[in-house]
């Protein structure tokens, strides 16, 4: 049985990708050389996984854009019913991207943990960057679902943070 293209197959890909990225932590204590090899593969796989998931997201949102929300006539195509997966697929893809990038940071720099402030700035930047990628891909805000709220909040917080840092830097110099 083949998985249908759509939000559910997208979620399955994201979950399997995240489970695969946990392999070095499980295998590492048992077989250190194999864990090192898996980490090397992850450095290539994580960006590839992000590209594939973003590409699938664009395909899903493009299909959502083509189907009417309400029937135009009695002979119209079957109307699309919005379910919770439709509203969350962009947010789920972003969470996958954030977890993958955080994991990539840990693979590259495994000895230290990052302070909360660094992770907060990392989160703001990744939300805004992911939103800008959606805009570049031509995905309208109305198809972003719950991610749009996160994007709007993060964009405003990042702008305010940059203004504050600029003013403080000007005062100190």
From TrEMBL:
The keyword Transmembrane applies. Keywords: Membrane, Transmembrane, Transmembrane helix. The chain crosses the membrane at residues 12-31, 37-58, 88-108, 114-137. The keyword Transmembrane applies. This is Uncharacterized protein. It comes from Rhodocollybia butyracea.
